[in-house]
Description:
Helix content: 25-40%
Oligomer: single chain
Largest sheet: 4 strands, antiparallel
CATH topology of the largest domain: Helicase, Ruva Protein, domain 3
Strand order of the largest sheet: 1-6-7-5
Shape: elongated
Order of helices and strands: HEHEEEEEEEHHHHEE
CATH class of the largest domain: Mainly Alpha
Distance between the termini: 28 Å
Number of strands: 10
Radius of gyration: 20 Å
Number of domains: 2
Structural class: alpha+beta
Amino acid sequence: MPELPEVETSRRGIEPHLKNRTITGITIRQHKLRWPIPKDLPSLAKGKKVLQVCRRAKYIYLKLDNGNIIIHLGMSGSLRICTNKTPPEKHDHIDITVSGNTILRLRDPRKFGCVLWAPTDINQHKLISPLGPEPLEDVFNAKYLHTKANKRQCSIKSFIMNSHVVVGVGNIYASEALFRAGINPKRKAGNISLARIQKLVDAIKLTLDLAIKEGGTTLRDFTGISGQPGYFAQKLLVYGRTGKDCTVCGKSIKQVTQQSRSTFYCSTCQR
DNA sequence: AGTGCGGCCTGTCCGC
DNA sequence: TGCGGACAGGCCGCAC
């Protein structure tokens, strides 16, 4: 269930092991992820140097001089760094080996993730080009979000989870940010004042910032067996706390379903 | 264009 | 104890 903070932490974890190394081989054990891993990926990437390890939204990509290897962790994906002395386990679908016998290994039990190839400019790729701004960058601000929300009838929760509006706000952090902003998740997106949208933007940035800092402590070890995402260690204020006391007012946290997703909120603190 | 839902997939949990 | 079924979730692609 990697959300943006986990993905960014993963990127930072693998970068020093891959940057400026040459790809010596790619082993695909399971092609069938969300989309099939391209059959020609090994031949396209072999012998190429990893120029950069980047992130856009929840996509990590390895920038080569002839294209990019795009990796999405889906729901259950995780990355680790190992060598060929570590035998692959059941859900280890692909190994990208670089010089120095270092392996980037993707594990993804539920196969919601993907590994794709984007020739040349990553921004031309059909999964990347429609994406909204990064939440932690300055272009994601109250004016932008308020304008974008104008006349929109959908709930504010599904609005901020829409990757064409802003990327990186998944189900967990949507509930958390709306709680911090004091906004009821069922409220229509187009019916929220600029001042309250400002609070929401601040809350999204704060929530993600905190989680990245937290991820830096819980997901630090990418070379050992403890490379599992540890987001449950985060201090969640409403997510998964149905029936428990609100940390602010003490009332019971409510759970509802929106767009087939669980939403958690405090009906007293969020209006 | 905006909105909502189906589907992909497996580990975990619950009730019988 | 074992088993079946519900549930969890990111997010594209489609239908309305």
